[in-house]
Structure formats: C-alpha cells, structure tokens
Amino acid sequence: MTDIASAATIGATIDSRPIVRRRKKRITGRSVAVLVFLTICALFFCVPLYVVLTTSLKTMDEIRQGQIFALPQTWTLEAWRFAWFEACSGINCNGLRVGFWNSVLILVPSLMLSVALSIVTGYALALWDVRWAGTFLFLMFMCAFVPFQIIMYPLIAMTRSIGVYGTIWGVAVVHAVLAMPVLVLIFRNYYKDIPQEIMSAAIMDSGSFWRIFGEIILPMSGNILIVVVILQLTSIWNDYLIGVTFGGFNTQPMTVNLANMVTVSTGTASYNVDMAAALLTAIPPLLIYFLVGKFFVAGITAGAIKG
Amino acid sequence: MSIRWTRVAPQLALSPALAVTMVAFIGSILWTITLSLTRSRRVPDYGIDWTEWSRQYARLFNDDGWTIALWNLITLGIGSALAIVFGFILAAMIDREKRGESFFRTVFLYPLAVSLIVTGVAWRWILNPDMGLEATLQRWGFEGVSLNWLAQGDTAMYAIILASVWQSAGFYMALMIAGLKSINSEIWSAARLDGVGLWRLYTEIIIPMMKFTFLTCAILLSLGVIKAFDIVLAMTNGGPGQSTWVPAYFVINALAQKQNLGYASAAAVMMLVLTAVVFLPLVLLTAWQARRRNAA
C-alpha cells in the first residue's frame, strides 16, 4: 500500500518540481528523430478530437461524401443547437440540456457529501489515536478495489428502501459511498505527515477534535482539497454506470443521455449531432483539464488506486 | 470533561465512514454472495438449498456467454498492455528529450479527462465503414483497406482495444515519467562514460530499476480491464451478438436484461474473485518489500 501511495506522491510532485534552467542543447540527429516520433504520436492522439470537432460542424450531406479529414465546406452550428435543444434520448426529445442540468444537480450534493465524509475520516485516522485504525484503513484499502457490480444490487435495494432510488439524490449518495475509500486514503496520506508535535501542542491548547479540524487542519488543506474536488468532478461527470443504474427516467446524467441518443437512435443516424453531443459532454472535464491540468494529474495519480 | 470529549469525538467522527464500510461494502458483498447461492430470479429469494448451492455457478460455467466474456477479458488485458508499453516509450522519449515536455504531456493525457462513453462514440464514428476513416482511405487510393472492425465479431475486440489504448496510454506515461524522474540522474552520465548503448541501458538498467512502477501499472491495468464496461457499451454494446461481452457487461446484462438476480450475483462474485487474484500479489509483494526494508 505504501508503495502505491509513494508512487502517487511522486506523481503528485512532478509538476511542482522547480524549473531547472538547462543549458541549451545542440539539436542532434537523434533528438530530431525523437521529436518527429513524438509529434506523430501527438497527431494520433489529436486526430479523434479533430475529426469529432469538424464532423460536428458539417452538414449531413457533406458527411456522406466520406471525407472524414476534410474541413467543413459550410460551417454550421446547427448540429450543436439540435443536440442541445432537440435531440431525443429515448422518447424524451428535449436535447442534452436535460442531462447537463441533471449532471450539475448530481455533482453538487455528491461532491459535498463525499468530501465532507472522507476529509473528516482521513483526519481522524491520520492524527488521532483511534482504536483499530490500522484495521479500518486496511478495510478501506480493500474496498477501494471492489468492483461495483458486486455491491450493485444491495445498493439498489437499500436506496429503494430509503426512497432515493431513481432520484438525483440516489445517484449522488451512491457516488459519495463509492468514492469514500479512495478519498479517505488520499486525505489520510496527506495528513499523516503533519508532525506529532503540532498535534500535541494543539491538543494542549484547545483540545477539541472539531476545533483543531476547523482552525488548523482545514486551513492547511487547500491544495489537497482542490486535487480531490477536481478528481471527483471529473469522475462523477464522466460516470455512466452509476447514473444509468440509479438515475430515474428524468434524472439521468449527461453521459447516459448521450449514450441513449447515440445507440438507441430512431431513424437515420445524424453523425454531426452525435459528435456535437459527444463534445458537449466532453467540454466540462476538458475545460478543467486544460485550465488546471496540474491538479488533475495529481488527482488521477493519487486516485490511481481507483483503477 | 474536555479530556473525555477529545477521546470520544474522533470515534464519533469515524462512525459514518465505518457504517458505510460495513453496510455498503462488506455487508453488500456478503449479501451478493448469499444471493448467488439462491434460486432468486426477479425478486430475491433467500432460501438456500444447500444440496444445490452451486447451481448458479455450474450454470455460469456452462454458459457460452460467460466463456466468451472470460476470453475477451484476456484479449482485452493483453491488448491493453500495449498502453503500458506505449506509455513507457513515450515517457522515455519525453524524459530524454526535454524539449516540449509539458506540451507533449498535455496532449498525451487529455483523453483521460474525457468520459469513456465519449471516447467510444468518437471511435465508433471514425471506424464507420461508409463515411469514416475507411471511406477516406479508400478514396485516397488504399483500396484494400478494411476498417469495418466493429461489424465483425472477430475484430470488434480490436477496435475496443484501440480505443482503450488511446484513452489510457497517457496515464501510464504519467506514471512512467514519475518513475523515470525518481531514478538517480548519475546513472545516465555513468552509463555514458562506460559507453553503454542506449538499448542496453534501457533493457538492462532502467527497466529493472523501474520494476515496481511496471508492477503498479500492470495491476492498475488489470483492475481497469476487469471493470471495463463503459467503453464496451459505447462501442459495440456487447455485439455483434455476444462477441464483445466482458464479465462486467455480463453481470449488468444478467441483472438488467435477463432480470436474473441469482445468476447475476454469481457472475459478480466471480468478478470479485478475479479482482482478488490480481490484487493479492500486490498485497503480498508490498508486505514482502516492507519486511525486507525493515530487515535491512
């Protein structure tokens, strides 16, 4: 466990390494070859994005010509408008915006629930002398690897019995539950490096569990909180399985809407609308990635144990 | 009073997490195991007939769909391992040639930010035989090119592998870069002084030194492969026929389509067993390493 965790911390520190000013290297034949190879690979990674973007801006007539790499002859945002306002998911033809707002509504409570639950647990496990802490931590570690399918039916039965199955809250609660083990481990690994002296002094000074949490621990958790929030934001937004299982008829997240729209389409397929819908779903996490990529990378490497 | 409060508060603060672990994880796993021993179909039926407790498992192993799912799991595992190889090559090159490091890293990692449903939709469109890449390549004069992989059972898995390698190679690259950076920089200059060739440097020195990073990657990959569901759903929805079923898909299908609770539970328990098989070596290995470190 410690080794995965240390791999994670190494990952978390890549970006914060000080920039060492290097001597300008002479460009050698080998480095040209390497750069050419890397550029070709970069193209391979970018091609799908390019294709999806250009397809979404074409008309269907143009798409039928079968020139997937060509730029649109007439640029149009019609497919985007249609995907957002009118596209059908099942029998519901209100477009992807329904799913978008559902995803936002799911995101807010599950984010708050999961962070609140795991930050307190991680803090208690790392800094307080709790009986069975080691065993509990080991259990959490095991839980982080459990495949969702094995707890799926019991979770359905439980959420149904408390009446949240098929609602936004059902999806949110299940997200919070499933994310808990990983997040607790992340928080605990972050807090365990706080020196014992600080804790002893704090206990002498005020003594209370919650006051130390509010006055000392929380103010120093800024970075890890951002990392965790971004990790959760992207994984909840990109989730499909929990959304489709626990979401009700009108409370399904955007990914489920998208999948329905694309796979269960009636009539002729409009690839431009499909691609616009795919992009609309991908834009929020991509924005996060390009704006605060550093934290995203730290988050996925720290949450790597999630698998 | 305050002393007692400080001792009680942490325990109290832990109780929600403890309850969640006990109920939602451990309790649920036991619940599913129990269900897998029963004849439950649509509604749970908790009567266990001990003379026939393994009937769901026996059925499972005689089910062609499950056999296909297991074979596909192996195919997907071997195919996705390319992502680790690819990730290592990219990491090694980026690490050698510092120029453009952050640019290349950003480009190689962005697919990971996107939902697998989106990835599947995008690749399915690219592999579309009439209007996608195939049509374009044929128009360019490559007449013999056939990329209609998704329509045929024996090639559909390769399309899924292609999409998942595209999606995850950047992730392994990031882990590998972290591993490479932790290698002492003197090794590079020492190797240069000794005149060790680049190939030997990597195969005989660097890769053995990074064996733990490779192991971590391999385990993460295996766990990811066992969980693979979204990408299969988005690209083929299990089809054509049952040719791209994987265990995760099998369980959901048994539960949602066949409405067979006992059967789905048995398959889910087998998924847990598979996970444990992958996972136990990790626990043993880390325990062994920790002991060795303590001994030293």
Automatic annotation (TrEMBL), chain A:
Membrane topology: Multi-pass membrane protein
Highest taxon, organism lineage: Bacteria
Assigned GO CC terms: plasma membrane
One Pfam family here: BPD_transp_1
Single GO biological process annotation from the record: transmembrane transport
Domain ABC transmembrane type-1: 100-292
Intracellular or extracellular location(s): Cell membrane
Subcellular location, principal: membrane
Keywords: Membrane, Transmembrane, Transmembrane helix, Transport
Regions that span the bilayer: 32-53, 104-128, 135-156, 162-187, 208-231, 286-305
Family recorded in the similarity comment: Belongs to the binding-protein-dependent transport system permease family.
Protein's UniProt name: Carbohydrate ABC transporter permease
Lineage, top ranks: Bacteria, Pseudomonadati, Pseudomonadota, Alphaproteobacteria, Rhodobacterales
From TrEMBL, chain B:
Keyword ATP-binding part of the UniProt annotation: no
Domain ABC transmembrane type-1 residues, every copy: 69-282
Domain of life: Bacteria
Any one GO biological process: transmembrane transport
Subcellular location: Cell membrane
Recorded family membership: Belongs to the binding-protein-dependent transport system permease family.
Name the UniProt record assigns to this protein: Sugar ABC transporter permease
Species this chain originates from: Rubellimicrobium rubrum
